[in-house]
Amino acid sequence: MTERPILEVRDLRKWFPLGSSLFSRHRQQVKAVDGISFSMRRGEILSLVGESGSGKTTVGRTVLRLTAPTSGSITFDGQDITRLSRRQLRPLRRRMQLVFQDPFASLNPRMTVERIVSTPLIIHDEPGGIAARRAKVEAALQLVGLLPHHATRYPHELSGGQRQRVGIARALILRPDFLVADEPVSALDVSIQAQVVNLLLELKDLLGLTILFVAHDLAVVGHISDRIAVMYLGRLVEVAETRVLFARPRHPYTEALLSAAPIPDPTVERQRIILAGDIPSPIDPPPGCAFSTRCRYATEACRAAVPPLREVAPGHLSACIRDDIALQAPRHGALTAPSKETCRCRLRSTGYRVTIACPRPSTSSSSAPASSASAPPTNW
Ligand SMILES: Nc1ncnc2c1ncn2[C@@H]1O[C@H](COP(=O)(O)OP(=O)(O)OP(=O)(O)O)[C@@H](O)[C@H]1O
Ligand code: SF4
Ligand SMILES: [Mg+2]
């Protein structure tokens, strides 16, 4: 029997109405998310990638019900949460948490780390007094590789990586089983990105988390994700297992993103595909395939109707009508997703981007501990 998905999203739309003008008869809508469907297995990391403005954050916030969907449905662990009220959502909030992109902006500068991390416990009336709360904060800090003395610090007294660890500790303190990590490493220095990516991978294994990981850097998501969903202008254009997507992209937009991902080896020749112009406006998307205005394979047929996301191989979905084109895949190991059999999975920063360094977990060269534990702390 197949296991029930922890998250099921069906035909989700999130349109934002724009202020109406005196002279326009119709109110315009920003179609930030325009009919997407996907599901996630328990314990999976699904990465959502795409250019700025493609709707990734809106998907993350809508599936967490931080914003109400315009239409479609969201089912979390078998429960339809699409139309639940704030009060009905409250018990679910503990189970579904968000890690923000910018750790500095998301932490209150006037609060100590202890107060920041313990706030969700207070909001959710977690039983136990101050001592119990303090013990939970300490366990959460330990889990993310911080030390007890960090509890008394303020955000400005921490490094960027430490601040993001605090953000992760705050997201974990209620022991959720589902996390949306919205570009958790893109505001960090490249040398710190690998540490935080490592941390999320280890926590996923340690705590059995399911993570929707939002990013625009395919080089990072290649190492963290089980599957990747590529988004363009509010719609999914390709979904596949990471190794499959890297080995054989089936949508021209994915091909272009892969060609632009940095390869930390100057000797490797590459054929970079430059996408002309910016992503079109989600207020008035192009007819038919929204990517047709920038696609080097576009024909008249592409503009006739929106291509459906269809299965082009088992578990591999693509929204391109052209099966006759051979797309290029990255030719270098740095962009090849790790084999789960050989690598579970310590990463090393090359000083440029994260690459797989070692097939054996015991030989990590990461300069800081990811999580300090191989099992959750005893007081967790
Ligand atoms: N509250 C809002 N009101 C109106 N438009 C919005 C709102 N939130 C997002 N949008 C628009 O929806 C589109 C998608 O935004 P979103 O933040 O989801 O993109 P993104 O893929 O996360 O981009 P980035 O990579 O820059 O974070 C954008 O055009 C954005 O301007
Ligand atoms: S449907 Fe046409 S325009 Fe769209 S991605 Fe495929 S080839 Fe390009
Ligand atoms: Mg975003």
From TrEMBL:
SMART domains, sorted: AAA
A Gene Ontology term for the protein's cellular component: plasma membrane
Skewed-composition ranges (Low complexity): 361-380
Subcellular location: Cell inner membrane
Start and end residues of each ABC transporter domain: 7-258
Record keywords, A-Z: ATP-binding, Nucleotide-binding, Transport
Topology of this chain in the membrane: Peripheral membrane protein
CDD domains, per database record: ABC_NikE_OppD_transporters (cd03257)
InterPro entries: AAA+_ATPase, ABC_transp_ATP-bind, ABC_transporter-like_ATP-bd, ABC_transporter-like_CS, Oligopep_ABC_C, P-loop_NTPase
GO BP terms: peptide transport; transmembrane transport
GO-annotated molecular function: ATP binding; ATP hydrolysis activity
Region (Disordered): 360-380
PANTHER family with a match to the protein in the record: D,D-DIPEPTIDE TRANSPORT ATP-BINDING PROTEIN DDPF-RELATED (PTHR43776:SF7), TRANSPORT ATP-BINDING PROTEIN (PTHR43776)
Entry's family note: Belongs to the ABC transporter superfamily.
Full protein name: ATP-binding cassette domain-containing protein
